[in-house]
Amino acid sequence: MNGLIKNNLKLFFKTKYLLFSFLLFIAIINIFLAAEFYNYLIHEDILYYLGESQRLGIVYFVFFVFISYEYCVKNKNDNLLESISVTSNGKFFFYISKLITLVIIILIMTLNIMIYNYAVYFLKEINLWSFVKHIFLNNLLNIFLVSLTGICIGTMAALKLKRFKAYFLIILLTILISPIIEFVPYILFMGFGINIYPLMNILDILPPNLNWVSESLYGLSIEPYRWNLIIFWICLLSSAILLNVSSKKIKLINYISYILVILSIYNFYSYMNSGSIVKKDYNPINFTAFDELYYSNEVQREEKANFTIDSYDMKIKIDRQLKNYVTITLNETDVLKGYKFTLYRNYDIKEILDKDNNPLEFKRHGDYIDVYNPADEKLETIQIEYSGYSPVFYSNLQGVLLPGCFPYYPIEGYRRMYLKEQSSYIPIIRDYTVKFNISVESALDIYSNLKNEGKRYYGEAQAATLMGGFINEKKYEDVTFYGLSLEELPKENNLLRIDEILNQYKSVLFKDQYTNFKDMKIFQSTITLSSKLTDNGIVSFQDHILTYDLSEECLVQGFAQKNIPYDVNKLKVKKEFFDYILHKERFINISKSELENNMIYKFRRLFLEKINELGEDYVIKKTYYYLTDENDTRDSELFIRNLN
Amino acid sequence: MKSKKVFSYLTLAVALLLCFSVNVYGASANAILLATESSTVSSAIGLSTYSDYSALNSKDSAYSVYANVQCAFPGKSWKQVESTLMAAPGIANGTNYATENANWRLELNPWGWGFIGCSANGIISYD
Known about the structure:
The structure holds 2 protein chains of 2 kinds. Chain A is an alpha+beta fold. Chain A is built from 23 helices and 21 strands. A 7-stranded mixed β-sheet of chain A has the order 4-7-2-1-12-15-14, with no helix packed on it. In chain A, strands 17-18-19-21-20 form a 5-stranded mixed β-sheet, with helices on one face. In chain A, strands 5-6-3-9 form a 4-stranded antiparallel β-sheet, with no helix packed on it. The mean pLDDT of chain A is about 90. In chain B, strands 1, 2, 3, 4, 5, 6 and 7 form a 7-stranded antiparallel β-sheet that branches. The longest helix of chain B has 22 residues. Chain B is elongated. About 10% of the residues of chain B have low confidence. Chains A and B meet through helix 2, helix 9 and helix 16 of A and strand 3, strand 5 and strand 6 of B. Chain B: Keywords: Signal.
């Protein structure tokens, strides 16, 4: 067999057109990687470099599908196969040795990309073992296994089809696998309501999201469903190849083929149960469209609960998706017939029980749950078991992004959670604290605003934030900062001078409510949080803050917002208020023509008019009272027009 | 003849100066999608750590239109940051931030590839 492989390797490199294609392929790959390496010296973003290198997956696929076809079909034409087939199992060994030869070439070419990726990693001088593993897994999945699938397709085509049909099939498959076909299921769904995404996705073996800014907490997509899909194809095709090239007499090979079929079925089943994934295409069940389409209709409600919550006891398990068993201790003043909760709609409730484990009747309508009390006494405790995921706020084996302002556990009352015109989630923050006792079962190290003992998180807070992935913990005197390991912030030193920074704004933004920031926790917002949450991901709780940057402005806004109840109707004023205080020079120096003609500044114009008319101090003071006054329910426009 | 040349150079210099003076405190770019176009991208507005955008899909549009905010960091290619589907009629607006300076642009794209028949406009800017 070894000799056969050596001969096959020689044959590969002696065949002029194969050798020429191979050299051309190497040249293209290395020119691309070197050019990106040069760009890396400018941006120094290792995750971006990894993403760009994984784009080559499609090039590898196309190359290996064609090369394997040509390589396998070559000897068919040379009549070599006929003579080999005469010998015992000759055809089988002949093809297997060819496949091994091709796998050796894939290995070399995968190593080629990995060398660049690891060179960039070492140049960056970050000590992050999980990212070393991430580079390896990405290359294994997106380059090695994608190429292997290509080889299986090329070999099957060589075994079964004539050149014209084979080339037709190969070109068709290449088109179906590549991202250019994405528009077909999209148009069918949006235009005619026909959903062929599940069918098309079966061929979706290439890495997704490469046209989007990378999610630094998460890395590139290597969720289990992608491995399942690609292993499904490889097992299915290789079993077909084995059955085609082996003689019926070799039972072992037949058994291996059947095992491969079983493996492929198992992987297909696992693929179908993908759970939480991050895929930023326009599939109606994914990141971009899932909530966008749902909240386009008037499905949101707002209603205060007539009870409060004393404590949550949660047993969270995060693998492919989130599973939670939560016991909620209620604080009811009267006996209630119904209890209203908000829980993100894609978490499926298995059951709801009372304190004696008796099932409680409930009604689910979107994000809202009504739990009915059958007895004439207070419920005191409700137990809810549910599982599921959000396509945006992910929770799986690769990353956990569960900010406390997102209802991944039941929140009392009906709450509005999406702002359509900004495609943003509205942070849900209660104005009192509750006790949390959470145990989290996850393969990742999870960081939280709560106190932590091993896998247990506990304490009293408004909400529980859980984050895991490429994140690390740093102490800056009294402040704990959870930063993204792959996206270092330039102004981390500001955390050492928070008091000094906040003092400059004390008279305007903090007044009597100047809060103590001791034991404060600050989480760096990911791109998902900063683009998908209103206020650009600056969310403030009493004990922790989420912010995309540690600039003075972001820190001030983060701390100041703690005293400002969240009200979606006041968003416009809030933006102008903070922009005026924190970026005053920029704010007032905007050119007159821009201010008058640019529709972006329509509300700013009103705000500036009031400042010019009534004076800065007065407008700022009044605006601050308006923002902090929960009872003032006027919207931004009404407030600014009424200001006098 | 010579004075005419000097005058034209002076005019050019003043025009350039005006262009730059507009950019001292910011820049903006419009994206206008005509009913005959299947997509449009604004010009890039230059380096900034943030950008405001606002877009409007008119009531005469045949379809919904995506307002896509894209950014490119030095050395990197254009990447999508945000994508909002505007009904007809519908609006989208917001601000996007980056921790380093990036170039920004706004793309208006009817929801179907190659679809025409939508009138929309948008602006992306920083001040």
